[in-house]
Amino acid sequence: MGITECDNMLMLLSVSQKMTEEEREKVTPLMIKGFKDAAEEGGTSVTGGQTVVNPWIIIGGVATVVCQSNEFIMPHNAVPGDVLVLTKPLGTQVAVNAHQWLDNPERWNKIRLVVTREDVELGYQEAMFNMATLNRTAAALMHTFNAHAATDITGFGILGHAQNLAQQQQSEVSFVIHNLPIIAKMTAITKACGNRFSLLQGTSAETSGGLLICLPREQAARFCAEIKSPKYGEGHQAWIIGIVEKGNRSARIIEKPRIIEVIPRGAGSSDSSTTQSLDGQC
């Protein structure tokens, strides 16, 4: 939608009943601080909320804003000829699970032939960094480069959210995804696990994923270059991943998409990504 301002933020905090009193006293203030810091980064502050106790640790919130119609972009104006741009790499679910498996010998043995412990640590750090990066810059640039539609990528994966966005379009269009930017080594892990995450099929859940944006073809490359500018801070990226064509309001990933391996920034490589065919051996 291209919203960049937030008038009010409420916080929902759930403290786990499985935590000891000492754990609660140490962890809970850090969770609250992190949430408040993120709100401040987004230009707002926490004004209230609710705290509960249940079996799970949860933190989240509700953001509200009142704005003029020219301050947001309706998500239904994609046209044939547009291109699809993604602003964060995929693979957060795989990265988090793989990191947990470092302490689970049975799980680790399934992937240790395709990745090292360092690979897993770097992938996990990259996932954390991306999850902690706001979509605010990308939302602002949607206005600059005349975006026609957008959605965020979360629980239904890249394909699920692309399908939902395609169904909302006023024009009879379809989205075709040719490229999948994925955190390095996560493709190898998902293959070693018998494709249990459905990462390459586009239905692996993402947490705090990027924006999938429909942009005019002539603006897409400029958007991708601009978002990497140091003036927006570290870590912003974007890739052209597909096209909008005349169709029936559907979305699909081609049979053999190009996998863009996004190198974790802690890996010390000057290249941010490499590419590999889906049918390549890992």
UniProtKB/TrEMBL annotation:
<feature type="domain" description="PurM-like C-terminal">
    <location>
        <begin position="80"/>
        <end position="252"/>
    </location>
</feature>
<protein>
    <recommendedName>
        <fullName>selenide, water dikinase</fullName>
        <ecNumber>2.7.9.3</ecNumber>
    </recommendedName>
</protein>
<keyword id="KW-0547">Nucleotide-binding</keyword>
<dbReference type="Pfam" id="PF02769">
    <property type="entry name" value="AIRS_C"/>
</dbReference>
<keyword id="KW-0418">Kinase</keyword>
<dbReference type="GO" id="GO:0005524">
    <property type="term" value="F:ATP binding"/>
</dbReference>
<dbReference type="GO" id="GO:0016260">
    <property type="term" value="P:selenocysteine biosynthetic process"/>
</dbReference>
<dbReference type="InterPro" id="IPR010918">
    <property type="entry name" value="PurM-like_C_dom"/>
</dbReference>
<comment type="function">
    <text>Synthesizes selenophosphate from selenide and ATP.</text>
</comment>
<keyword id="KW-0808">Transferase</keyword>
<dbReference type="InterPro" id="IPR036921">
    <property type="entry name" value="PurM-like_N_sf"/>
</dbReference>
<dbReference type="GO" id="GO:0005737">
    <property type="term" value="C:cytoplasm"/>
</dbReference>
<dbReference type="InterPro" id="IPR036676">
    <property type="entry name" value="PurM-like_C_sf"/>
</dbReference>
<keyword id="KW-0479">Metal-binding</keyword>
<dbReference type="InterPro" id="IPR004536">
    <property type="entry name" value="SPS/SelD"/>
</dbReference>
<keyword id="KW-0460">Magnesium</keyword>
<keyword id="KW-0711">Selenium</keyword>
<keyword id="KW-0067">ATP-binding</keyword>
<dbReference type="GO" id="GO:0004756">
    <property type="term" value="F:selenide, water dikinase activity"/>
</dbReference>
<dbReference type="GO" id="GO:0046872">
    <property type="term" value="F:metal ion binding"/>
</dbReference>
